[in-house]
Design brief:
- The protein is of the alpha/beta class and 259 residues long.
- The protein has eight helices and seven strands; from the N terminus they run E-H-E-H-E-H-E-H-E-H-E-H-H-H-E.
- It has a seven-stranded parallel β-sheet, with helices on both faces.
- Helix 1 links the parallel strand 1 and strand 2.
- The longest helix is centred in the middle third of the chain and has 29 residues.
- The termini are far apart.
Length: 259
């Protein structure tokens, strides 16, 4: 439901907002009258997205460029928000990545630590900084972008799968910790989504990334944004705790039927 113009728009903070699912979420919420705090490392992409959203939807946008792995920078940025942006209503922990598809005993250890730092530690830190404000205001919603990979390990993905299993555990634990409040917690677990995700995973090898989507119609960032928005806009007594979203011909993290 779109916000009434007489109401103060809710504020949504999205990490990893410069492309893919994060960008699609930004556009979806802007279309529905929310104002946005957008984070990513790429300042130029954020500025372009800010201009597009402001010109198209007239939505207030605050861009917040920083690397979610940099604890000092994260803490500085989130504790010094301008007053009008301090009351975050919805946190979408979207920043995340997979790197490589190697066996656990052969994987690049730097890739391992980057995935853990981004997918687990950064999500935990940002949640820790944002949720106390929600608790004090007695309202809010945390939406974590997990993955089907968090349900079971697959070949070459053990560390990434472990990080997304952690996202599930963190989501479930936070929901338990907040069960006596009206703050909702949602874990959205996408399957095969065609974004820049695979280009990053394969370190810019576009041909290898493209093969991942051959013979199947994958999900899009917009598909996941629709699910995220549905969870956020559900009636206040409804908590969408967890959603697994797969392409029609995908059965789980590793079983995909291709034409």
């Amino acid at each position: 439901m779109k916000h009434n113009n007489t109401m103060t728009p809710k504020t949504v903070f999205i990490t990893g907002a410069s492309s893919g699912i994060g960008e699609a979420c930004a556009i979806k919420f802007a279309q529905n009258g929310y104002r946005l705090i957008l984070n990513a490392r790429n300042t130029d992409k954020l500025k372009t997205l800010e201009k597009t959203i402001s010109n198209t939807y007239g939505t207030d946008v605050l861009i917040l460029p920083f690397d979610v792995r940099n604890r000092a920078e994260v803490e500085q940025k989130l504790t010094s928000l301008p007053e009008k942006w301090q009351n975050i209503d919805i946190l979408i922990n979207n920043a995340g990545l997979a790197l490589g598809l190697d066996k656990e005993f052969e994987v690049d250890i730097d890739d391992c630590f980057t995935m853990i730092d981004t997918n687990v530690k950064a999500l935990t830190l940002i949640t820790r900084l944002v949720v106390p404000g929600m608790k004090s205001r007695n309202r809010g919603h945390v939406i974590n972008i997990g993955s089907v990979a968090g349900d079971a390990a697959y070949a070459g993905g053990s560390v990434y799968c472990a990080t997304k299993a952690a996202v599930k555990a963190l989501s479930d634990g936070l929901r338990i910790d907040l069960y006596d409040t009206p703050i909702r917690v949602t874990n959205v677990k996408p399957g095969l989504v065609e974004t820049n995700f695979s280009n990053i995973r394969f370190h810019g090898d576009k041909d290898r990334a493209k093969k991942l989507y051959t013979g199947i119609k994958p999900l899009t960032g917009e598909d996941i944004a629709d699910v995220v928005y549905y969870a956020a806009s559900a009636p206040e007594h409804v908590q969408i705790a967890e959603v697994l979203v797969l392409a029609t011909h995908q059965a789980n993290g590793s079983l995909i039927w291709r034409e």
